[in-house]
What does this fold into?
Amino acid sequence: MDDKNLKFNSKAIHGGQSPDKAYGAVMPPIYQTSTYAQSTPGGHQGFEYSRSGNPTRAALESALASIENGSYGLGFASGLAAMDAVMKLLQPGDEVISTNDLYGGSYRLFKQVFEKFGITFHFTAMQDTQAIADLVNENTKLIWVETPTNPMMNIIDIKAVSAVAQKHKVLLAVDNTFATPYLQRPLDLGADIVMHSATKYLGGHSDVVAGALVVKDKALADKLLFIQNASGAVCGPMDSFLLLRGIKTLHVRMERHCQNGAGIANYLKTHPKIESVYWPGFEDHPNHNVAKAQMDGFGGMISFVPKGASFEDAISIVENLKLFTLAESLGGVESLAGHPASMTHASIPKTEREKSGVVDALIRLSVGIEDVEDLKADLDAALSAI
Ligand SMILES: *Cc1c(COP(=O)(O)O)cnc(C)c1O
It folds into this structure.
């Protein structure tokens, strides 16, 4: 079967997958082993040591490559471990351009870990492609895009950024955590590397921390595979199994996340106590046309600011929610609410944060796949407390 010709819903279940070689197990067994017997030095059956390769992780990696329309998938211990591997492609003196409302942990990795190794980072509002082009110089080696952005739901035009990257021979990496390949396939739009916090929608059940990279180019894959093995932040066999299991329902979960996301976004938009709602599905969203062109739906991530609300008001709303769980993270079947200023984005200085719209009263929702009427009632009750 040529997986490449399958539609996404079939790829999610069958892409890159075949029954296990030992006994024909339909689900890949959890190869909970560190090492493999050799008949003679070097005489092994494809696996030597589980940092370098493990059959459960290999099954995950080929599934990842399939759903992102890439050729090589790599499984990591976390999303940030996957990013860390990409950053290790760089040398001291190299420069990176990224978005100014990046995931807080990505910003921290750039500024507090890699800056001290002599790498320079520039942050700009990437909706403006010209602003990116203006920052490119002979030291620029990587453009790091996250779209939709977190938590402001800005949309960056991947095709337009890839034209800039290709013109200047700069690598383009896209953090596809929020959209997932169900909604957006960056490699098809010209990106060189797709990255995931697989902890989120790919896993989908809030029971695993993992990361992923997918690329098309063999030389780039070889460099990343070398770093993955040399640095060693690999995805374990149990986590690989859980991710494979999650990916098999990605398409049905995402369809409902999109439906419920639209329901909640529209509910909040007409609510008298709400000042603003950030969701790329609105026709008046500043980048709605780009979203419509590069995404197959608008997802279940929504941010909003209650009218005249303070830091404390926002905290009291998230504390009063009952069906939405107050928690870091996103992308699970259950609905979560977060307060970026004190949680996910607390590591970004307040002045930096507010420049990109992450004000003290901003609340972020990861809309799950419960009944949407129950979710609305929960928000209604929590909002009536202010
Ligand atoms: C969570 C997240 C990350 C980091 O991934 P971990 O799995 O937590 O290491 C990176 N980017 C985005 C957009 C995220 O939401």
